[in-house]
Design goal:
With 372 residues, this protein is of the alpha/beta class. Helices cover 35% and strands 16% of the residues. The chain is built from 12 helices and 13 strands. It has a 7-stranded parallel β-sheet with strand order 6-5-4-1-2-3-13, with helices on both faces. A 6-stranded parallel β-sheet has the order 9-8-7-10-11-12, sandwiched between helices.
């Protein structure tokens, strides 16, 4: 089985793309001379920038393609898809690993012309029909280890599970300047980051609980509090800030993903629901405390002993629903319990220790444009 020219397919989301980076790292360790490319969507591409395990990032504007499809522009959508697959076929990949497992990605891998196509046997939407090698999915395997199972057909049994989030000097400089502008002493001040927003309403902890937790952390641990969020989270973070008795640093919409990662790396603890920035924090070595309700921490919580998770005691937990008529699951996790867990983590690791930085590599980014 040739592995000289490999294409990985994982289009989205931020957390899932990050969870798949150990696949590229393990491939690089076992096939150092291979040409490794990654097909990714626009919203998640920044995760891969500078990844030294990749030779190429192939950016496909999937979101725009889906918009055209929803509008009923079938002729243009078909032309765009043919352009994508033809350009992939021109690259003459000998192997495709479908990390997404959808009909769309299975079809892309098949039309790429690669002779070896690997994916999960239980992949969704019938995508397994397009694979030449189907890997059985083990029940409740931690998500990083889950994706690494796709390397088993290559005879790989020992994996590097460390996620990869390389940062350049400009990202570290941004974080240092931010800390300086907020009068934060990196050697003396304790910084705790709260990330209140998630992509699923069911994963969100009540805003009032975040405010209550921030007050406990400020009083009990003398911590300086940062709030993270996307531009669309500005109203949510304002609501939370209004309930916090001490000054807080509101970073909603003020960082890109790499800058966010550098800021998080300088903090002592990251508290969040199950969402992309949680896994960015784990990737850069910051201890995390995650709050789980509809998803299973055995599968989705970060690996290793520096991370902890608090799980809702609701009987309906792990439902994996994006919306819910009850919305009581996350509300059963109390701020006082989260504070006690945070205090335990801080007391165990009072000094911030940085993990060894991943070198920021020069990776070619190829954008496949829409057909005219």
């Amino acid at each position: 089985m040739r592995a000289d020219n490999i294409l990985l397919i994982r289009l989205s989301s931020i957390g899932d793309v990050l969870h798949c980076t150990p696949v590229a790292r393990t491939l690089r360790e076992h096939f150092p001379q291979a040409r490794i490319s990654w097909l990714v969507g626009e919203k998640s591409q920044e995760i891969l920038h500078g990844n030294p395990d990749l030779d190429n990032i192939i950016l496909w504007q999937r979101e725009k393609w889906e918009q055209e499809l929803r509008k009923g522009s079938w002729q243009k959508s078909v032309a765009d898809f043919r352009m994508l697959t033809q350009q992939l076929k021109n690259e003459r990949y000998d192997m495709v690993i479908d990390l997404q497992g959808l009909l769309l990605t299975g079809l892309i891998g098949w039309r790429s012309g690669a002779r070896t196509r690997i994916g999960f046997r239980q992949a969704r939407e019938g995508s397994a029909l397009f694979y030449t090698h189907r890997v059985r999915n083990e029940h409740r395997l931690q998500i990083v280890q889950h994706y690494l199972q796709l390397l088993r057909p290559l005879g790989i049994r020992r994996f590097n599970t460390q996620m990869v989030m390389p940062l350049a000097q400009r990202h570290y400089d941004f974080a240092s300047n931010l800390f300086s502008s907020q009068n934060i002493n990196e050697d003396q001040d304790r910084v705790i980051i709260l990330n209140p927003s998630t992509s699923w309403p069911t994963k969100c902890w009540p805003p009032a609980y975040y405010a209550r937790l921030a007050n406990l952390l400020g009083t009990g641990l003398a911590a300086k509090i940062m709030l993270l969020g996307a531009p669309g989270d500005v109203p949510l973070l304002k609501e939370i800030s209004a309930g916090i008795s001490q000054p807080v640093i509101n970073l909603a919409g003020k960082t890109n993903l790499k800058e966010l990662a550098a800021v998080v790396q300088k903090s002592h603890l990251f508290i969040s629901g199950d969402t992309g920035p949680l896994h960015i924090a784990a990737a850069v070595g910051t201890p995390t405390l995650s709050l789980f309700g509809p998803t299973d921490p055995q599968v989705y919580a970060p690996l290793d002993e520096k991370h902890a998770a608090i799980v809702s005691d609701a009987r309906c937990r792990y439902c994996h629903k994006r919306s819910c008529a009850h919305s009581t699951c996350m509300g059963r996790i109390l701020p006082e319990d989260v504070y006690l867990a945070a205090r335990k983590i801080i007391q165990q690791k009072p000094q911030k220790k940085y993990m060894e930085a991943t070198p920021y590599g020069e990776v070619t980014i190829k954008t496949i444009p829409a057909a005219v």
